[in-house]
Amino acid sequence: MKKSSILIAGGGSTYTAGIVVMLLEAKETFPVRQIKFYDNDKERQQKVAEACEIIIRERAPEVAFSYTTDPEEAFTDVDFVMAQLRVGKYALREQDEKIPFKHGVVGQETCGPGGIAYGLRSIGPIIELIDFMERYSPDAWLLNYSNPAAIVAEGTRRLRPDSKVINICDMPICLEDIMARAIGLKNRKEMEVRYFGLNHFGWWTSIQDHAGNDLMPKIKAHVAKQGYTENTPAGQHKEESWLEAMRAGKELLEIEPAFLSNTYLKYYLMADETVEHANKSYTRANEIIDGREKEVFSECERVVQQNSAKDTTFHSNEHASFIVDLARALTFNTKERMLLITENNGSIENFASDAMVEVPCIVGKNGFEPLTMGKIPTFQKGMMEQQVASEKLAVEGWMEGSYQKVWQSITLNKTVPSAKVAKEILDDLIEVNKPYWPELK
Ligand code: NAD
Ligand code: G6P
Ligand code: MN
């Protein structure tokens, strides 16, 4: 059985330890011979790496482990690069959230002007990862979680169209696990879904069990009552700010009763309420800095201090299982059906062929094949056309250093009321993003 070599890029991420635990748990069905970390923040990565080194030593001493900030050392001899960069870190995420709020607009990591700002920071570093990978391990795949995945995917489509890159998102599968548990199934793997949209902008049109029975009525009954909230502590996204997004599933079902909506549609369809209810001086970035980030790094310190991870709280989760499933499908030709972000090319029949969409794909040794989702209704088509135009203008704005195009990108975003407000937000974003953005003229 082939044993893979994995590079985690963004080794200092709060998600890294979960992926390492998952890789070790999956060793019967996806064996690894080597795990490496790469990051451009040496100190941050080292803290995570020292804890993961102990986890690997205790659970799978045969797996080689190393970490580095040197691209050649990192990218040589790898089969998969699992990327999770946060360009500009939480400090800039805080600005992405607070600047739009200051102007009365949704401030969010990946949606609205904040997502566009994050996109303009991320395109360059992701292209850099692809180039390192192709130089040192030309046969490897880049499996990319780095956000904003929609804009990053359009960037990779425009700038590296022939590269082995797959952009992915964990939100649909996390929601599917909630739906599955809500109707008494073990998890999402007992369901087969049809889904269409853009990243963080999509809808389920059908959910069946493997015998072909329609599960939508039961799931909708749950969502109509309590959105995507559930009465179990299992899974990711359980903090209060996330539960608010989960509850919005109920209103989203009223807006589109035929389908089940991704929670991220809340920021576009319920923008006014989102702004009204938000704590604009203490946003999600602040919550994470005081929460998940602190917890991860203090757990790393604890593991290192006691020189054992036997009782560690680090555990695998949906996020980790999805990227490992993808690597397994590519390695062993499992033909697993997975939601990926891909060039449309007719998968959604009445939508632009060059749009990056999120649809179910069959994954095997030679890559992936999107399934056809057919024609979509006018409401979704209209929303998606506006959003995809906003995303494309952001990428073109980055490529051309065009102030005009980035301004138009923000103006076109459904979260933004006018060109005037878009300009005010853009001018504030330019100030804080100077170290990361091209100069816009
Ligand atoms: P984090 O800040 O804890 O980790 C990101 C790491 O990336 C940091 O250690 C940072 O130093 C490193 N980094 C930043 N720029 C880099 C560069 N140019 N080169 C190398 N390393 C660089 O962030 P996090 O909260 O753990 O999230 C990591 C990423 O994963 C984010 O982009 C987040 O949005 C994304 N994410 C995506 C999904 C999805 O559904 N696609 C799900 C969860 C997280
Ligand atoms: C979901 C999305 C990711 C996003 C994450 C943010 O999992 O799919 O794309 O990065 O939520 O979670 P956070 O806890 O950082 O707000
Ligand atoms: Mn996502």
From TrEMBL:
Show the taxonomic lineage: Bacteria, Bacillati, Bacillota, Bacilli, Bacillales
Protein name per Swiss-Prot or TrEMBL:
6-phospho-alpha-glucosidase
Query: Looking at the keywords, is Transmembrane helix present?
Result: yes
Q: Which organism is it from?
A: Listeria seeligeri
Q: Which SUPFAM superfamilies match?
A: LDH C-terminal domain-like (SSF56327), NAD(P)-binding Rossmann-fold domains (SSF51735)
Q: Which PROSITE patterns match?
A: GLYCOSYL_HYDROL_F4
Name its co-factor(s): NAD(+)
Would the keyword Transmembrane turn up in this protein's UniProt record? yes
- What does the record's cofactor remark say about binding? Binds 1 NAD(+) per subunit.
Instruction: Give start-end of the signal peptide.
Output: none
